[in-house]
Automatic annotation (TrEMBL):
A Pfam match: cwf21
PANTHER family membership: SERINE/ARGININE REPETITIVE MATRIX 2, SERINE_ARGININE REPETITIVE MATRIX 2
Location relative to the cell: Nucleus
Protein name in UniProt: Cwf21-domain-containing protein
Keyword Nucleus recorded: yes
Principal location class: nucleus
Coiled-coil region: none
Biological source species: Hesseltinella vesiculosa
Gene Ontology terms describing biological process: mRNA processing; RNA splicing
Ranges of biased composition (kind: Basic and acidic residues): 32-53, 132-164
GO cellular component, one term: spliceosomal complex
Gene3D superfamilies named among the record's database cross-references: 6.10.140.420
Length: 175
């Protein structure tokens, strides 16, 4: 027995006496973890558009630099190199706004804002596929008080609807 846990002796217990923790136990999150000091729930920050644009422009510049080095090795004049590099840069910058975000799995670890943006789009697609409403609150299904209030509200609405329909039915039967 260690720290008062387990068997004092494994004899006659049919076990070896080894204490294993319960891996199937699910711990509930405390309110302190779920809410910040203001009482608001934590939300992840949205991806910063400026940073994502900067990363994409930086990649374009890297491609332009690679083209420039390749053309210099081929022995072209500086004016021709500048024209070709500028043409490529302008073409890439035009498509920059129209470019679709890549899949989150194909992005590298340091591209956090691009990953966030791709993940946001992926979550929106998934929400549309599962028909999750925009006003959905995570964890609301486990809030018993909220569910009780919603049930009561639906019951009242049903009762009101039935009351409105009963006079109509009486009028129809009298005719």
């Amino acid at each position: 027995m260690y720290n008062g846990i387990g068997l004092s002796t494994p004899r006659g217990s049919g076990t070896n006496g080894y204490v294993v923790r319960n891996l199937s136990h699910v711990k509930t999150m405390s309110k302190k973890i779920q809410e910040n000091q203001d009482g608001k729930q934590y939300k992840s920050r949205p991806p910063n558009k400026d940073i994502t644009q900067h990363d994409l422009k930086r990649k374009i510049e890297v491609e332009c630099m690679e083209l420039q080095l390749k053309l210099e090795e081929e022995g072209l004049s500086q004016e021709e190199i500048d024209l070709k590099v500028d043409a490529m840069r302008q073409a890439k910058l035009k498509t920059l706004d129209e470019a679709k975000p890549r899949d989150a799995k194909s992005l590298q670890e340091h591209e956090t804002h691009l990953i966030q943006e791709a993940k946001k789009l992926e979550n929106q697609k998934l929400a549309r596929a599962f028909r999750i409403k925009e006003n959905h609150v995570e964890g609301a299904a486990f809030d018993r008080d909220l569910q009780r209030q919603r049930r009561e509200k639906r019951r009242i609405e049903r009762d009101d609807e039935l009351r409105r329909q009963q006079p109509r039915q009486r009028r129809n039967t009298r005719d």
